[in-house]
Amino acid sequence: xxxxxxxxxxxxxxxxxxxxxxxxxxxxxxxxxxxxxxxxxxxxxxxxxxxxxxxxxxxxxxxxxxxxxxxxxxxxxxxxxxxxxxxxxxxxxxxxxxxxxxxxxxxxxxxxxxxxxxxxxxxxxxxxxxxxxxxxxxxxxxxxxx
Length: 146
What we know:
alpha+beta, Thiol Ester Dehydrase, Chain A, 6-stranded antiparallel sheet
């Protein structure tokens, strides 16, 4: 699974949400993923900082990609719970998210993620519970564009 995801990334494929928000999957390893976002004014809330929902998107993407590396053939995933703590505001610049699968059970798993700014300062810490779902469309990175 990890090699399939790496080939998908290297081919320059993007999920629609990544295109919309401006996120990028930087890499995966077994039970791990890293993603990034170059934050700008388009991501701001009314107070001139990155909107919390954007940070949730980045952590959800990163944790989902980490959990995806644990899936088998014909399996997909769904986030069934997400918790996030905000430590400092971010305005502009590259935000880097790193996620790690902490526990992988038969039908669910627990993943943690940290987002840091360009100075390496912690912006948010998040966790999620992911559910394994049987999905005939699993392996979307192999899907041909319609």
